[in-house]
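hey team, just a heads up i'm posting the complex here instead of the shared drive bc the drive is being weird again. everything in one block, sequence lines first with there labels, then the predicted structure for the whole assembly after. its four chains so it's a bit long, scroll down
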Amino acid sequence: MNRESANERLVRYGVKPSVQRIAIMDYLLANRTHPTADEVYSALCPSIPTLSKTTVYNTMKLFVENGAALMLTIDDKTARFDGDTSLHAHFICKQCGKVHDLPFTGRKRAGSFQLDGHLVEEVHHYYKGVCSQCQEGACPSS
Amino acid sequence: MNRESANERLVRYGVKPSVQRIAIMDYLLANRTHPTADEVYSALCPSIPTLSKTTVYNTMKLFVENGAALMLTIDDKTARFDGDTSLHAHFICKQCGKVHDLPFTGRKRAGSFQLDGHLVEEVHHYYKGVCSQCQEGACPSS
DNA sequence: ACCCAACTTTGTAACGATTACAATTTTAAA
DNA sequence: TTTAAAATTGTAATCGTTACAAAGTTGGGT
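-- predicted structure starts here --
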């Protein structure tokens, strides 16, 4: 069974497709590295030379608003984006900055729910520390 | 039983006290609003007119490094700080931006631990949605 | 009390992520 | 084809944060 295409995913989430949007979603689906807007821009520039960084920001905002992607605030320097909207946790390495997926261990609740009088729409579980690579002193970027 | 003073807390965490550091820690302990550096600066300026915003940033960094305070990355706009370092979760309202404490429901582990090969030093549980006040259409700042 | 080195604080300038905005281009329906 | 709405683009502005060097403060040894 094939993975859903970027275009199909956009349609499923009610986002009108365009060359740029498809390319960005495609990058998110193919690269589960939780990239920043800048990383997405740099990666796509070669194939779409006219791409603007503003478009990346606008598009990310649109994706998030439509539930087609997640914005992570795990990194205090910059926003990161995740095309995998299923419930999972994230780990960020304080040394190399890389973000890894981890299984979600908390109680799983569908959609949004009330908690202490507040309407919860998103649940984020963030772990911060030193990744396995960096523990071995083997992290390339530091 | 009296609450620990700001000065005592600094000493306990190995932070050499100063007028500015005591004032900032005192503010954190007295105001559990998870303030931004700017909010701390604005609040303390009247009483310490020579205070510099750089000092607030430096001091917050020092507190966090020494475990005397937490930096929250729940808000994508700006860092927020918490003088309560006990294990608890946070909720941020997407409308008014206020951050509330919530009980921590996950598995409680002491200090740092290994998870999937990574050394976890901090655990953050963030909930995002609409706070009770804003749900009633009663939030002052929006 | 004085001196000096280490530490702290301060102000300014720089930096970088993000957004505002207006112009241009593209899309799609009539 | 025409035309209005939507999308994209580039530039400039904004704002949180950090770098840096100067000025101020502290505490120990004399």
